[in-house]
């Protein structure tokens, strides 16, 4: 009879493992919710200061990247391009990650099946193993390319959101966010505080009006 105690799994150890896992999950969830709220609050404040009518998009899972994309500098056309591009890249990245995980699982199952060396099997084990692995590698490469593109585009958008704090501080915030994306919400919240960005929308409108007059 199989007994867990024979493998060192005593009731005390199992209880401790469950408790530690539960505490870890709770702490991780709490930190995730806090960062999510900081991201939304900070981005919504910055968007409102810049005259965006739908700043509440910053609190929604995918539309928050639409709002972040509109924080880049430049014309309204450039802002719309980044606003559409950024959420599209993150959506594609998520889909590709799911596909890669599914293909990896399929490949691992094939390897385990091949390792059984079932005698008399009519299945071509070589093809069974190589087929999903090849597709997984292709999906992984595409995922890495899309992830890199999303990271670069988001860095440009973050810099646009931070620019009211000055180019130096905005650059520092952007680099740190590029290294650890979880810091983005904290820096957005910090950048949203103060009055430095309240007249940004008016300044941009004045600059566009001046450029139009010069032309």
Topology readout:
Elements: H1 11-49, H2 63-69, H3 76-116, H4 125-162, H5 167-179, H6 183-192, H7 200-214
Backbone CA Rg: 25 Å
Low-confidence stretches: 117-123, 195-203, 209-213
Query: Helix share of residues?
Result: over 70%
| Distance separating the two termini | 88 Å
Whole-number tally of structural domains: 1
Structural class per helix/strand content?
A: mainly alpha
Shape verdict: globular
Q: What string, H for helix and E for strand, traces the elements in order?
A: HHHHHHH
- Biggest sheet details: none
Question: What fraction strand?
Answer: under 5%
What's the number of extended β-strand segments?
Answer: 0
Give the assembly state of these chains.
single chain
**Average pLDDT figure:** 79
Tell me the number of helical segments per DSSP (H or I, 4 or more residues long).
Answer: 7
What's this entry about, in short?
With 215 residues, the protein is an all-alpha fold. The chain is built from seven helices and no strands.
Give a description of the structure:
The protein has 215 residues and is mainly alpha-helical. The protein has one domain. It is 76% helix and 0% strand. It contains seven helices and no strands. Helix 1 packs parallel to helix 6, helix 2 crosses helix 3 and helix 4 runs antiparallel to helix 5. The longest helix has 41 residues. The radius of gyration is 25 Å and the shape is globular. The C terminus is likely disordered.
